[in-house]
Hints:
Radius of gyration: 19 Å
Structural class: mainly beta
Shape: globular
Distance between the termini: 23 Å
Number of helices: 0
Strand content: over 45%
Largest sheet: 4 strands, antiparallel
Amino acid sequence: MIVIVPFSFSYASTGINTSSRAPYSVYLKLINEVKLPGNPIDIYINEDRAYLLCPSIVVINLTDPNNIPKPEIYSNFTNNANSIAFNGSYAYIGQDNGVIKIIDFKDNDNPLNKGSIDAFGPISKVFVYNGYLYFIRKDFGLNVYDITVPEVPISKGTQVVVGEANSLFVRNHYAYVTSLNANLTIIDVSNISKLPIVGTYNAGINFYDIYVNENYAYVPQGSTGVQVINISDLPTPVQITNIFSRKFAKQVVVNGYYTWVNDENSVQAFYSREPKDQLWAGSYDIKGGTINKLAVEDNKYVYLCSSDMKLKILQVYYNY
């Protein structure tokens, strides 16, 4: 098991009284805000840059999060994007019109249009893993393309899922697809020609942006928090605990011992030496706005795509 050791800061510089705080507590401090040309709906961190969909493409240099240079804005490639993933320097950008744009960002000052893929239906999520592009259509399910040659994507297979597909995560040999009807479908992507369904799970009302870490799936379910599901014994996943966030859980990121929950208006941090034991560790409230997406970088920084057309950058301090 690979464990990411949290980046450690002293609370002394923040002026925070730590006497009543648990040793695993975190404090999130807003250190920067970047004004954006539109409402940011997705973010992908590739090396030292953040790529945001606003819904045009905005590229932000993150070399020094405290001092952000002027963002690069590219509105000529897309204006209805909703999801982004990378394969090397190539970005695959899902759009509301059912087309996936392929953009080469090898030279960030001069990105190049490298074609597109017609998905023939509304796209919910794109995901890249081990040389394959995975994407889900709301009205269908999973689609897989070989992108070994980035500019020549080759369709490899499809699999229908129950309900309106809205989230996707791929890890090792499996694709995990959730639907708005609280259905989780697990698909064996090592058998690329058939893409058989090897596991299912249904409990709750709706599922949102799934995250998979080792043998556990973290599934946000809105007002009732996040289900943590053991997926090691297929075809029958088993829920082991529930994370009760404050308002409306819609996204999860797991990084080392910490689980980060996008809770609509706040980011909630939970400490987890074991997935079944999730202890509240801290939070940051953006006070009235909505967090569309969050990204976490090595447990040092948390990036929030905020509905007030800003990228909010939080630094993480640990009570060690």
